[in-house]
Amino acid sequence: MSAPNFKRLKSLSREERKALTNRSEADLSFFLEKVAPILEAVRTEGDEALVRFGRTLDKAEGLTKAGLKVTQAEFDTAFALVDDAVIEAIRFGIANIRSFHEEQAPEPMWMKEVRPGAFAGDRFLPINSVALYVPRGKGSFPSVTMMTSVPGVVAKVPNLAIMTPPGPDGTVDAATLVAARIAGVETVYKVGGAQAVAAAAFGTETIRKAQKIVGPGSPWVVAAKRLLAGVIDPGLPAGPSEGMILADDTVSGRLAAMDLLIEAEHGPDSSAWLVTPSERVAQEAIDTLPELWSRMTPQRVEFSQAVLSGASGGILVADSMEDACAFVNEYAPEHLEIMSTKPFDYLGDITEAAEILLGTHTPVSIGNFALGPNAVLPTSKGAQTYGPLSVSDFVRRSSIGYVTEKGYPEMARNAKILADYEGFSSHANAVSDLRLDFLKD
Ligand SMILES: NC(=O)c1ccc[n+]([C@@H]2O[C@H](COP(=O)([O-])OP(=O)(O)OC[C@H]3O[C@@H](n4cnc5c(N)ncnc54)[C@H](O)[C@@H]3O)[C@@H](O)[C@H]2O)c1
Ligand SMILES: N[C@H](CO)Cc1c[nH]c[nH+]1
Ligand SMILES: [Zn+2]
To answer: What sections of the protein cross the membrane (predicted)?
Structure first.
């Protein structure tokens, strides 16, 4: 086992500091090259290609075209397979996620009188069809089913369809089906990876073409979304998970180590950093990691050790909390915990983070599974321009304008001046006195 990275930010050059903010997603060239033929095969062969990739890439040897869509009987079996405690936790999470997302639902329409007799506003309608990608590979993700389905249902999208890889036995993860049905999504396709993105983008004999695909995934999924961005709206960029723990000197380094491992265990391509100005917190964290690894499964130990000793994770000592906050902003993490007895003191200093969890009782796990805000979040500095998945990802907005006879003269006079300046004669004619003549017809 290699030791976790430990660095003091002040000892780093500007380039070395910047290099710490790189993610595995920064170079997708390998994946882009590999997924291009998969996308083309799905475009030209449809279901035939989906079955072939399900058999080869997901090892679902018994997969058939007829079996690509989950049946009602498979949903019913899933409820019998999943423990009651898991079903209850799914219900608990969905209730909170729904409660949170209902607050985001826009009014169907608003209008304002911007000038006497001139009205302007917005109208919102659900997108007609959205595919929800639910990963399955380095884990199964009923929680992602909850996070993608609920905002789509709240937005009243008429055609929601989950795409998720089949396991080797040809079935979809049972808790994913339970979560889908409780959330209100009954269309689930057994297709994952790049082929799922292609199936949603082009449609196949079985799979209905979608206008948008949301949901996180491995670099295979991220690469496919990037290549098909001209065919389907790929939503916010959500790739390998990232966690950052910002800790001041008021907390236990043992606690910081515990939460550092949360996102580090997703996969070797994830990122996880502890940033603190406290040498004590840093040292306690380093000393605690072996004890925590002894409580984890071998695969999760392997993933988190790869992250913490590789290019995308470790423990960083900053000069001060100010410097630590500056580094957080340079990094723009997906999940951020502000671990302090006074977390609100630092909230104003953090401007770049997709999710900010405050205090010592709000670990990322609670955000991932139970609290309500969406845990499908932008990665790889996406937080600089995107927010978490939300109801607004499932609706489109049209602006509405209505000018009355009373409001017309002032609007027309000003519009004509600019139409003339820009040299558009038809634009200008339409707001000239000629219009008033035509209106008399
Ligand atoms: N950003 C977020 O909000 C968020 C949320 C949850 C999970 N995640 C991330 O999503 C990712 C999920 O990854 P995963 O692997 O568990 O599931 P996944 O479903 O994204 O990827 C598995 C699929 O990849 C394809 N694949 C695997 N090997 C391949 C190969 N050699 N060639 C072509 N295709 C191949 C297969 O089709 C397989 O079904 C993780 O990185 C996790 O950290 C992110
Ligand atoms: N941390 C993930 C988002 O990056 C969400 C998740 C689901 N299950 C476990 N984790
Ligand atoms: Zn997670």
So the answer is: none
399/129 Cα distance (integer angstroms): 21
Regarding an ipTM greater than 0.85, the answer is: yes
Cα end-to-end span (Å), the chain? 86
Residue closest to 204 by CA, chosen among 161, 153, 239, 174: 161
| Mean pLDDT value of segment 379-386 | 98
Burial of 188 (0-12, 13-18, 19+ CB in 10 A): buried
Q: Note the ligand closest to the C-alpha atom of 377.
A: 1
| CA of 241, closest atom in ligand 2 | 4
Pocket perturbation via mutation, ligand 1, pick of 32, 220, 364 by most ligand atoms within 8 A of CB = 220
Quote the ligand 2 centre to 375 CA distance (angstroms): 6
How high is the pLDDT of residue 320?
Answer: 98
Measured from the CB, is residue 269 less than 6 Å from ligand 2?
no
DSSP-assigned beta bridge partners for residue 126: 395
